[in-house]
Amino acid sequence: MDKEPITLNGLNKLKEELVFLKEKKRPEIVAAIAEARSHGDLKENAEYHAAKEEQSHNEGRITEINDIIARANIIDVTKLSNEGKVIFGSTVYLEDLDTGEKINYKIVGRDEADLKQKLIFFQSPIGKGLIGKNKSDLVEINTPSGVKNFEIKDVKYI
Question: Which CATH architecture has domain 77-156?
Fold first, then answer.
């Protein structure tokens, strides 16, 4: 069973989602199934089948979260000494050498990744291209949209 790296924040969000799914969503689905059952013939009952499918998805996600939590390897970068090296959990400040655009990313685990919030999966092309590099390094990364050239301006463990 492989350990899954995760930030403390990511683990807390998963635990919150688990509580929501178990304590709020699960009872709502059970009530919807009971309601649909009371309508009679289950073969023709779309509400019943929809509720059963939703129950299956919900239980699947609960199992998935429990598995992730069981395999969680919490990485708290705030407790590590920062020598300017890009590691899991660090925030990397970059300058796109082609456009001059300044951007920053926090390198996180699979379940935390959200590009809109500048959280990138450590196994993504950019994540892989940055990990192990250092402040002031020039980095060339092959992305799905082509080759990108960055300069690492700063690395923070926050």
Answer: Roll (3.10)
